[in-house]
Design a protein that fits this description.
- Helix 1 (13-42) runs parallel beside helix 6 (150-174), helix 5 (126-146) runs parallel beside helix 7 and helix 10 (221-247) runs parallel beside helix 15.
- This protein folds into 2 domains: 42-219, no CATH class; 242-451, no CATH class.
- By secondary structure, the chain is mainly alpha-helical.
- The protein contains 18 helices and no strands.
């Protein structure tokens, strides 16, 4: 197949892509949101702490499952080359999953000792399955984004949430055993991979294996730089939770994970949709010399769509959590208030972060993530030594510092001026102020009622 020349998208194509993806995310997160008040009563904070450690370890490993070749799928002008990258990415995923299965089989006691969670010992077999499912889904998602198959992506998200939440509810209602939480987490990615699996099979059949090595060499910057970058980024988020579970209490990690879920639901709802639509257009915008202006416009859309709701959730969380999830989750509501600056800046930075790869700034991205890992884990270790009770709050504040630096580096990479970005963000101040004002009034009324 000959390289295909880029063609201009019709007006409003980006907005329509966001709407299709967001509609699937609305339904998917609606399913999850309905299930969470039930799950929080079927499982204890200790069970959620076990899930936090399992999901955290899997999150760190899964970003390297395909050696980041899935990120390169959007870049070639030729669909044939992109298809070869799909097969290369899946082959790497199978290889890393088999390697992890070998480690689990040969050294289970060593793994449990390193994690500090004996309760995970019966479930180590889920790790290689989860890694395979997560890597396959990341590859299929990247291919669907390239093909602009946004409807398929939306349907896969709904199937993921329905299967994951259904499994967790069924096992929790019948046995109350924490394996339901872990198995639902694995099936979430696995079902998404199956929904989009036909494209993978077609690519595998059509691609000669001898074509994989040239693609592996052509895009070697991704495994060389992006894998370490992604590992550092994920470890900076997940390793402190694992440390808190081991050094403070599993229940405290469970409270943290519940707070993170409540904030990340709106993050994923809009942010993921905008991120995928951004990636589908960013390479062409770069070729046209418009990536800076395009990125600033997307930043404004992010502020308008998510800043207000995120700030409102942070203000109301201490009052809402005991009502929605049960009295035992009040601590999670207070932690979410501390996490609000982190999640707000993450919501603005992460959808634009693919620009670092589109612009071949993998080395800068790696240095940034290594610095973030040192900052966040270092502060948590210091807090565990000097003020262990405040470790979750320290962890929350470190996230805000890191994602502010992350956003500034992205704007530098795309060539956007700080003044234009600030102007675009301030233009969205009115709807944000309305959300914040309403939340403050609601919080005041709630405290008067409880007084």
């Amino acid at each position: 197949m000959k390289p295909q020349a880029p063609h201009p998208e019709p007006p409003g194509a980006f907005a329509r892509a966001v709407m299709v993806l967001a509609s699937g995310a609305v339904v998917a997160h609606g399913i999850t949101a309905v299930s969470m008040p039930l799950l929080s009563r079927l499982y204890s904070p200790e069970h959620f702490g076990l899930l936090a450690v399992f999901a955290g370890c899997l999150a760190v490993l899964s970003v390297a499952a395909c050696l980041r070749y899935e990120l390169a799928i959007a870049l070639p002008e030729s669909d044939t080359q992109a298809q070869e990258l799909v097969v290369l990415s899946l082959a790497c995923c199978v290889g890393t999953s088999l390697l992890l299965a070998l480690v689990v089989a040969l050294a289970p006691d060593w793994l449990v000792a390193r994690l500090g969670q004996p309760g995970l010992a019966p479930y180590l077999w889920l790790f290689p399955l989860g890694l395979l499912a997560a890597g396959a889904f990341a590859t299929m998602q990247a291919w669907s984004v390239r093909r602009k198959a946004f409807g398929l992506l939306a349907r896969s998200r709904v199937a993921q949430s329905a299967c994951g939440a259904g499994t967790q509810l069924a096992v929790g209602a019948t046995t109350g055993h924490p394996v339901g939480l872990l198995l639902g987490n694995v099936l979430n990615a696995g079902v998404g991979s199956l929904v989009m699996g036909r494209a993978a099979w077609s690519a595998w059949r059509a691609t000669p294996l001898q074509r994989l090595w040239p693609q592996a060499k052509a895009y070697r910057r991704f495994p060389l730089y992006s894998t370490a970058e992604a590992l550092a980024n994920s470890a900076a988020i997940q390793l402190p939770v694992i440390l808190i579970a081991a050094q403070v209490a599993p229940a405290e990690a469970g409270q943290l994970s519940m707070a993170m879920f409540a904030a990340q639901a709106p993050l994923s709802l809009i942010g993921t949709a905008i991120s995928q639509a951004y990636l589908s257009r960013a390479p062409e915008s770069l070729r046209q010399g418009q990536l800076g202006a395009f990125s600033v416009a997307v930043l404004g859309n992010l502020v308008r769509a998510g800043a207000g709701p995120l700030l409102a959730v942070g203000i109301l969380a201490p009052l809402l959590f005991p009502l929605v999830f049960g009295a035992q989750w009040q601590r999670a509501g207070h932690l979410l208030s501390w996490m609000t600056p982190w999640f707000l800046l993450q919501f603005l930075a992460v959808p634009l972060s693919m620009a670092l790869h589109v612009c071949s700034r993998q080395r800068a991205a790696l240095m940034l993530q290594l610095g973030g890992l040192a900052l966040r884990v270092g502060l948590v270790l210091l807090s565990l030594h000097w003020a262990a009770a405040w470790t979750p709050e320290v962890y929350a504040l470190s996230g805000g510092v890191f994602y502010l630096a992350y956003l500034l580096v992205i704007l530098w990479a795309v060539g956007a001026s700080g003044r234009s970005a600030l102007r675009e963000m301030l233009a969205q101040a009115r709807p944000v102020a309305a959300w914040v004002g309403g939340a403050v009034l609601a919080a005041g009324a709630g405290r008067l009622v409880h007084a």
